[in-house]
TrEMBL record:
Topology with respect to the bilayer: Multi-pass membrane protein
Transmembrane parts of this sequence: 59-84
Domain GAF per the UniProt entry, residue ranges: 393-557
GO function term, MF aspect, one: phosphatase activity
Gene3D superfamilies: 3.30.450.40, Histidine kinase-like ATPase, C-terminal domain (3.30.565.10), PAS domain (3.30.450.20), PPM-type phosphatase domain (3.60.40.10)
Biased composition annotated in UniProt, kind: Basic residues: 12-30
Entries under Pfam families matching the protein: GAF, HATPase_c_2, sCache_3_2, SpoIIE
GO biological process, one term: phosphorelay signal transduction system
Domain PPM-type phosphatase residue range list: 575-795
Name of the featured protein: SpoIIE family protein phosphatase
Length: 922
């Protein structure tokens, strides 16, 4: 406990004027130790522990370590030499024995003849095992010239390939080698089995494992290690005896260490900025350094005198003379407050007495209050750096600033931002501000609420701060007419509430002024001061950077979302082949590159596309738009899915090359795509994918599976062709296409995600809309880290009575029969208004097929949303639309077809081509 003692009745002697004479080190040591009652007993100087004889700091320890190292090196060298020699001899012996055993077995009577019987293993296996036991080798293997074993110590290895080199043996040579075989590391020999004419008809291998070779070494090691241990023990004992004698004589220290220790001791003692006093057990002052003389104003001859005779204050003299323990006990000595710490010197076997340290704490008391305030401000600035800007949301960042400052700095904090800042735009100082954040010790303060639009008058502190870009202080709001002019009624309520002081700080990020922050005080009676202005400015400056970053992010995110929404399909095209529902959910962190599309094709077919560009941001969204446009263009060519993906792959590779050459844009590598074409006539779906997750299929009975669609490489890698899968879909089946954000995230892999998706689809409703909603309710994470695109299509089939088909012979006279048949079918369908144009279109198309195409020729008419006419032939030549000259005899057929039909085109099949034309139904 700290005790403050007075100096009444004290008698002190002032320090003599003039420079103080320093004592020689020898005298200091004599005073320190010579006057102790038991100085004649050897003890540890300065309380140091006695060094161990094994310590490397002493000469004995170094000798000990040196001898131990030599002995260990000799032992290690002997062991290594012995092991290497024995291993060499054993290996050489193993090679010789393996060669001898293998040659003996190869030349044994009946070996060559046994190779020609149907089952050589039945003879070789028992003979080889018997020979192995007799010769003490680890294996004897007989094999044919292809290396196939007929015998082996492990029967399950018979019939398998021999492990080792057999080529030289096939040429009639003997092979020896060290390898790791089926029974472990070993030394083996391979010898040939020869016919009388010298032809190699088989091979024999014998070998010994390394474990057997090393047995001799293991038996000799204990003797060597025992001898080494005895030598090491004798060396250690001899060194320990020498070390003990040296330790008693020098205390384990050399002359240089002892000299350096005393020199450093005196240097530290007389230069430290704390007073050090040593008092003997009889209350006599043994030592006082220079700082103790200065602080206590001791006389020059104080050492050796009684403490009570030094002129100290009674309480200080009693403490130093008593030897009791004291911790930071404060004593008043003249005009100084001295903190005294005292401990006895005999706690660890030292001489009786006490040592005390004295330091001046006069200025410490005055600085402690200011230091505490500075520490609190630094802590607040640190908390602001950590707690402000944890998200890229402008409003949340403003709220974090208000929360950090209340109640540690202000009782109420309001943040007002320009409206454009909240939406990511450039702030306009002529527009009103909006109260974005409010925090206070109470919720009923009569300040403007959050969301209020505020236009500050020119005389208000906030307006002045925005205009001048400087901090504005209103120490007393009750006498501030400029502030009260903002709202006389509300200002009176604020003053009556108890809020009396205000700091308005402009929220600036570089040259931009984003808004203003107001700090209000009510509980502390003192107004804000100049030092607190700097703290307020520092807090707002840290928050301004975070708010500006959030504003920039909001702007870029809005631009990316706008771009992405403009690139995605707004509405789905009208078609009858599929009933479609979809969902698109952007990632929480930013805009990504997931996309989908539904593309009507010729002959009532529909293409479904789902793709994904790895990454987020404007680059991913722009790349997605480029790929989607490319798919639109390629699908207009009516290409098969695998050819369309091949063209898309080349496009992505060219994009990568162009952007890599520019050097400022990330490549597109990582884009995936799935392309499916459904034909409602055949109810067949052709699917191809490039690195994309497989589609899911819900059959009419509710069962869910993932069709086996070959997985091609992601787009842009090139080099590998894409493959397709043909799916026969019953009417009412649901095809589910999606991106990897639905089935894969940081917490689970894609296999687990697919199983969870299967479970969600199994309990989904019948309609595509219900399926989408069920999947998202079951699978959507709280904060998706990736975009999610989901497309569900339920199949429909074109009725049989809406399909008419005829085979056409390769005869120009058959054209008239086609026209008659089509006219009758159109009359049955109630499409008499289209009879003339349909007959004309089919006449031209069939005539072209007969004249320029090849057999077989087939005509098909489909009644869908439009009337579709198709002419099939086996030729791959493509017709071209051209303008015929006045003198040309032909060339006007396709021109007429293009004028009469709404759309027309050519589609190639593996067996030929199809020319089709569509007419709108009345």
């Amino acid at each position: 406990m700290v005790r403050l003692s007075g100096r009444s009745g004290a008698r002190s002697l002032r320090r003599r004027s003039g420079p103080r004479t320093h004592r020689a080190p020898g005298r200091a040591r004599a005073v320190r130790w010579g006057s102790m009652p038991d100085a004649e007993h050897p003890r540890k100087p300065h309380g140091r522990r006695r060094p161990s004889p094994l310590s490397g700091r002493s000469v004995a320890g170094q000798v000990f370590l040196f001898q131990v190292v030599i002995v260990l090196l000799l032992v290690v060298a002997a062991v290594v030499a012995l092991v290497l020699q024995v291993r060499h001899d054993s290996t050489r012996e193993a090679r010789n024995r393996s060669v001898a055993v293998a040659e003996a077995f190869a030349n044994a009577p009946g070996t060559r003849e046994t190779l020609r019987i149907p089952n050589p293993s039945s003879v070789f296996q028992p003979r080889a095992e018997a020979a192995r036991e007799a010769t003490k080798v680890d294996f004897i293997v007989v094999m044919n010239t292809n290396g196939i074993r007929y015998s082996h110590p492990k029967p399950d290895r018979i019939g398998k390939q021999f492990v080792g080199t057999i080529e030289p043996a096939l040429q009639g040579k003997v092979v020896t080698e060290e390898i790791t075989g089926t029974i472990g590391p070993l030394v083996q020999a391979v010898v040939p089995i020869k016919d009388p004419d010298g032809t190699v008809v088989g091979l024999v291998s014998a070998g010994i494992t390394t474990a057997t070779v090393g047995g001799t070494v293991d038996r000799q090691l204990p003797l060597v290690l025992s001898a080494a241990a005895v030598a090491l023990a004798l060396s250690t004992g001899g060194t320990a005896l020498v070390s003990r004698r040296l330790l008693r004589q020098t205390h384990g220290l050399g002359p240089h260490e002892m000299t350096r220790m005393y020199e450093h001791h005196d240097a530290v003692l007389h230069s430290v900025r704390e007073g050090v006093i040593i008092v003997g057990d009889e209350g006599r002052l043994l030592l006082a350094n220079d700082e103790a003389h200065r602080l206590l104003d001791l006389p020059a001859d104080a050492e050796g005198r009684e403490v009570a005779d030094l002129g100290l204050a009674p309480d200080t003299a009693d403490l130093l003379g008593s030897g009791r323990v004291a911790t930071d006990e404060v004593h008043l000595v003249k005009e100084r407050l001295l903190a005294v710490n005292q401990r006895p010197t005999n706690l660890r076997g030292g001489p009786p007495g006490s040592v005390a340290t004295v330091r001046d704490s006069t200025e410490l008391r005055a600085l402690s209050g200011r230091a505490e305030a500075a520490r609190e401000r630094l802590s607040m600035i640190y908390d602001a750096g950590v707690g402000i800007g944890t998200s890229l949301d402008v409003t949340r960042t403003a709220e974090e600033l208000a929360e950090v400052a209340v109640p540690r700095f202000a009782d109420f904090v309001t943040v007002d931002l320009f409206g454009a800042v909240l939406s990511g735009g450039q702030p306009e100082t002529v527009t009103p501000l909006r109260r974005t954040a409010f925090s206070g010790i109470r919720k009923d303060a009569p300040l403007y609420p959050v969301g209020e639009q505020i236009s500050f008058v020119e005389s208000s502190p906030q307006a002045r701060a925005l205009r001048d870009g400087q901090v504005v202080l209103e120490p007393r709001l009750s006498v501030a007419p400029g502030w009260q002019a903002q709202d006389l009624e509300r200002s009176a309520q604020v003053v009556e509430y108890g809020i009396h002081s205000l700091i308005a700080v402009p929220l600036r990020a570089g040259a931009l002024v984003l808004g203003v922050v107001s700090f209000w005080r009510s509980q502390k009676p003192e107004p804000f001061d100049a030092e607190e202005l700097e703290l307020a400015e520092e807090l707002v400056a840290r928050a301004a950077v975070s708010i500006d970053n959030a504003r920039r992010y909001t702007r870029e995110h809005s631009m990316a979302v706008t771009l992405q929404r403009s690139l995605l399909p707004r509405t789905l095209p009208e078609q009858n082949a599929l009933e479609i529902a979809y969902r698109y959910l952007p990632a929480q962190a930013g805009v990504g590159g997931d996309w989908f599309d539904v593309l009507p094709l010729s002959s009532a077919r529909v293409a479904l596309v789902v793709g994904d560009v790895v990454g987020h941001g404007l680059h991913a969204a722009a790349t997605m738009g480029r790929l989607r446009t490319a798919v639109h263009n390629f699908s207009a060519l009516d290409l098969p899915p695998e050819e369309l993906l091949a063209l898309l792959d080349e496009l992505v590779a060219r994009i990568d090359q162009d952007e890599t050459a520019e050097g400022d844009t990330a490549p597109v590598t990582g884009a995936t795509c799935l392309y499916a074409v459904y034909d409602p006539v055949s109810r067949r779906c052709t699917v191809a994918r490039a690195g994309h997750p497989p589609p899911a299929l819900i059959r009419p009975d509710g069962t869910v599976d993932f069709p086996d669609v070959p997985a091609g490489p992601p787009l842009g890698l090139g080099g590998l062709p894409f493959e397709t899968a043909e799916l026969d879909l019953a009417e009412g089946s649901r095809l589910v296409l999606y991106t990897d954000g639905l089935v894969e995230d940081r917490d689970r892999d894609i296999d687990e995600g697919l199983e969870l998706l299967r479970a969600a689809l199994a309990r989904a409703g019948d309609s595509p809309e219900e399926t989408c909603q069920t999947v998202l309710d079951a699978r959507l994470p709280d904060r998706p880290s990736d975009d999610i695109a989901l497309l569900v299509a339920r199949t429909r089939a074109l009725p049989a009575d809406a399909i008419a088909e005829w085979q056409v012979p390769s005869d120009p006279a058959a054209v008239g029969k086609v026209r008659s048949s089509v006219s009758l079918r159109l009359a049955d369908w109630g499409l008499d208004d289209l009879t003339f144009t349909t007959e004309l279109i089919l006449s031209e198309l069939v005539t072209n097929a007969i004249r320029y195409g090849g057999d077989p020729i087939r005509v098909r008419v489909l009644r869908d949303r439009t009337l579709i006419c198709e002419v099939y032939d086996s030729s791959n030549t493509s017709p071209h639309l051209r303008y015929a000259a006045m003198t040309d005899e032909g060339g006007r057929g396709l021109f007429l077809v293009a004028q009469l039909a709404e759309r027309w085109g050519t589609r190639y099949t593996p067996a030929g081509k199809v020319i089709w034309a569509e007419q709108p139904r009345p």
